[in-house]
Amino acid sequence: MTTPPPARNRRAPRPYRRPKKDAARMVAFEALRAVDERDAYANLVLPALLREAERKSGLDRRDAALATELVYGALRLQGTYDAVIAACVDRPLREVDPPVLDVLVLGAHQLLGTRIPSHAAVSATVELARVVLGDGRAKFVNAVLRRIAARDLDAWLDEVAPPYDQDPEDHLAIVHSHPRWVVSALWDSLGRWQPDASGRSGVEELLAADNARPEVTLVARPGRSTAAELRDALPEEATEPGLWSPYAVRLAEGGDPGELDAVRENRAGVQDEGSQLVATALAAAPLDGPDRLWLDGCAGPGGKAALLAALAAQRGAALVASEKQPHRARLVARALDGNPGPYTVIAADGTRPAWRPGSFDRVLVDVPCSGLGALRRRPEARWRRRPDDLAAFGPLQRGLLRTALDAARPGGVVGYATCSPHLAETRAVVDDVLRGRTDAEWIDARPLLPDLPGLGEGPDVQLWPHLHGTDAMYLALLRRTA
Q1: pTM score above 0.85
Q2: CB 3.0-4.6 Å disulfide test: which of 59, 73, 221, 470 passes with 54?
Q3: Same domain, 251 and 315
């Protein structure tokens, strides 16, 4: 008689283990959900989430830095990570629940965009999935992340991005994580302004600059503080002088502007150097006649208005700062608080002026736009904007420039600025407005920005992140004629 095999020892089921909350990754997940669900901007929602986590769970500076890297890394490289994730799932991404996709993108960034060891990245992200998605969907996350972890980023790009010579725009869109239409628009604009950099290398440098972490730049408001004062207030290794603006100071990574007395006292502020250059160029433009009253016609949230007010005060001139939205007008008033010279803040629609025509010697309109020039600061904007948005902005931009020209007296100067390099929001707007008028002429803005390379043929100016280290600000200067 055959002896039956011995019975197998069955392992007792493991007791259920409650998932552990990782404060940094929880903050990152909550920030991405706010961006997705409420169209929030990460630079506005993340600080509040970090403060709450510090209060509730004792989040320290190191964990806060990790959460910040995860949020901005995931948003900047979302297009690349979506392509990789799509190659690892058995369904279209549109059929993956958005919270699951947010967790997967956070995991993909840890695996492909940071130095976190693969096993730690997978383990921590699956634990996050257990907390926010439940054990069932956490298993799906685990399977996908293990497939992603099998290759590095270069190997994945070789698989998911088409060859450059086959489809250059789609290749760049996936490799540099921009929507294809944005790649096309930036390439066209770069070719217009920088013909020698319009090929692959130029646009790749621009797209890569959009994905680089931007420096924090301070502005010393003239007459109230100086760049030297700001630098002296911090350790020598913590600051560098600005690249172009005499009022700029660049902070080292991790520097906190709130530590400076001048910032707390409103004598200095945080402002990209491109915005500083727009204000200083308008203030330096040659003027025929008196120089007593200036207008910032789209003043919110107040950075340029504060710099203009300080410059105007040094000449005995006054500033009127106008902003359509009352809550943004309050931000302008806060930014101008303490300015030594006369100023007025009003809530008014720049297309329906609250002032008489011909009232001002200098006028600035930094018009609402797509924000494609500040993608390194607001990376989510690249996924939120659509080509149709430019058509919606166009009439407003033209209307604001027309009323700005009307507001300037004969001999006065108007600056048209926008944080976008898109041709439809820059030269096309100015050309269209001037085509219907005989009372305005171009001023060459390039001599007012000395030492800046790559300003093209003029007379207007386009700044670039990869060439100038600034946001992609555009500036056209016009003189009102009789």
Answers
A1: yes
A2: 59
A3: no
